[in-house]
Amino acid sequence: MDNSDIVKRFGQVQSARSIVQSVWDTLTDYINPYRGKFFQDNVNEGSIEWRNRQVWDSTATRACRLMANSMHANLTSPATRWFDLRYRVEELADDKAAAMWLRQAAEKVYNALQDSNFNREISQAYYDLVLFGTASITQEAKQESDKGWGGMLFSAVPLKEAFFEEDHEGQAEYYYRLLKWTPVQIMSKFGTDVPKSVISAAEKAPETKLEVLFAIFPRKGKEPAEMGKKLAPKRRPIGYKYILKESAEDLGKEGGYYEMPAFMPRWEVTSDSMWGNSPSMDALNDILTLNAMVEIRTIADEKQLDPPILVEERAMVTDLNLDARAVTVVRNIDGVREWTLGGNISVTQEAIGDLQDSIKQTYRVNELLLPPPQAQPMTAYESGLRYQEMQRILGPTLGMLQNDMLDKIVARTFNLMMRAGELGDIPESVLQARSELEVEYVGQAARAERVAQAQNVEQFVGKIAELSQVMPEMLDTVDSVKVANKLARYYNVDPELLRSDSEVNEIKANRQQQAAAAAEAEQMQARGDAAQSSLAAVSQLQDASERQAGGQQ
Question: What does pTM read for this prediction?
Answer without folding.
Answer: 0.77
